[in-house]
């Protein structure tokens, strides 16, 4: 059905005669089918000016308003629809509640920056996947190589979807997209690819025309149409795969579970290990219009039978465009879960048919329109998605996204840790320490030096886990981690870098190592401090230490000696488990033999004084 041509023809009818419900309604329906929600909202308002208009038009009007972000208006329209059609009252109230949720998300958006990418053409561009040094995506742009010979899709009046590859130059700007080889691009639609980890196998969606029989048809590569005519040629999705051999792609092979005469199978997505293939389908036995399924790779390389991903993910609506992140999180689009309008992006934890924690990704990743095809860079924060938001004609665009980071300042001080003794000296500033700040996504460090008072500063950003190293001759190299929670650009994040002199037989207290009464097992809070000691040993590979445990004078000498040795042994075993060579660390229990104060047997002391003696130390032995 050629909706693009139909709307123009219907408008010409209106130019010559008084508007009728039939013609006005056909225009509204055509814009709805073409995903042009702005025009659909306008024309459904015209439809409802006719008193005899069916109530379903009120629902379509509400849907269009919701897609356009007019949530307060859409809420009232849904409630009106529910009042008119009692059988749909529950659905209407659910949709009205979804409008409230969307308004809340818009008022409280996540700190994410969204940018429309320069590779967009003005036609539909969507469905990015990483490949080689760039991305592959789908587009119905005009292909300059084909020129006037390029065929046009009557549904929307634009060329058929083809696969394109593009990468960024040294200036980090996109180059010119190039059509993928003809083996992957047939005359009709080709879209939604997924590549194996080595890039040598691709699965993608191909649309083929079939004579409509008894089941619903998919006449658009991104949505399933409701009411095709019985004699129509309809478009159905199929999955094909190809391998890159001898410098070219092989002839694509049909997926074993394609059945275009009866249903669609599309939107493939490989798991990171390549052993699971997820896809969308409206095959019989599903839970809704389209469901997500998966197949397991068999030993012989074939794919096992499709299994439905289950009711946690799938709804009575449409689920499509699955993608699996490096950590196993499933991302997909749905209009069946509570969302902001159209297809929304969701995440789910689990695997195969066992999923939990389905969560809406909220604004600004989601909008009132269709949002789909999300992928993430290896850092798990930056990525790309596709959406027809901000589109006058309903076309899709590719957006990049990254967390919005509030900038602030790290103000630090380098000080020398005092040697463990009875009267602890106050920490002294250490000047001219070379400080290296590492961003998790950069190998190069930002370098600064502490001044005469040991002070230094760095410009940092909210939410990033930085590593800072302090280096100076005569001192052990020290590392620290900081993840700033900046609320404004005026925030100052404070950090003391405590350095230990590299002098044999110097002993230093390891702070915050606590044990349960009469126990020697390493508690989680103690493990965090021992982790820091393990980092120090990694930063100073030439160093060997004695790790010692000390008790207060309460209990007998023999008991305290035994308990301190058990605690020292446990601490050393933990550090060895973190990858430190056992030859570099020895355990020593001193019991109550090295008290730091007067609190020996028979002396009355406060709990605070006893606590000073219960300690863990490390001593440099080389």
TrEMBL record:
<dbReference type="InterPro" id="IPR011042">
    <property type="entry name" value="6-blade_b-propeller_TolB-like"/>
</dbReference>
<protein>
    <submittedName>
        <fullName>OmpA family protein</fullName>
    </submittedName>
</protein>
<dbReference type="InterPro" id="IPR036737">
    <property type="entry name" value="OmpA-like_sf"/>
</dbReference>
<dbReference type="GO" id="GO:0009279">
    <property type="term" value="C:cell outer membrane"/>
</dbReference>
<dbReference type="InterPro" id="IPR006664">
    <property type="entry name" value="OMP_bac"/>
</dbReference>
<dbReference type="Pfam" id="PF07676">
    <property type="entry name" value="PD40"/>
</dbReference>
<dbReference type="InterPro" id="IPR011990">
    <property type="entry name" value="TPR-like_helical_dom_sf"/>
</dbReference>
<dbReference type="Pfam" id="PF00691">
    <property type="entry name" value="OmpA"/>
</dbReference>
<dbReference type="InterPro" id="IPR011659">
    <property type="entry name" value="WD40"/>
</dbReference>
<dbReference type="InterPro" id="IPR008969">
    <property type="entry name" value="CarboxyPept-like_regulatory"/>
</dbReference>
<feature type="domain" description="OmpA-like">
    <location>
        <begin position="502"/>
        <end position="622"/>
    </location>
</feature>
<keyword id="KW-0998">Cell outer membrane</keyword>
<dbReference type="InterPro" id="IPR050330">
    <property type="entry name" value="Bact_OuterMem_StrucFunc"/>
</dbReference>
<dbReference type="InterPro" id="IPR006665">
    <property type="entry name" value="OmpA-like"/>
</dbReference>
<keyword id="KW-0472">Membrane</keyword>
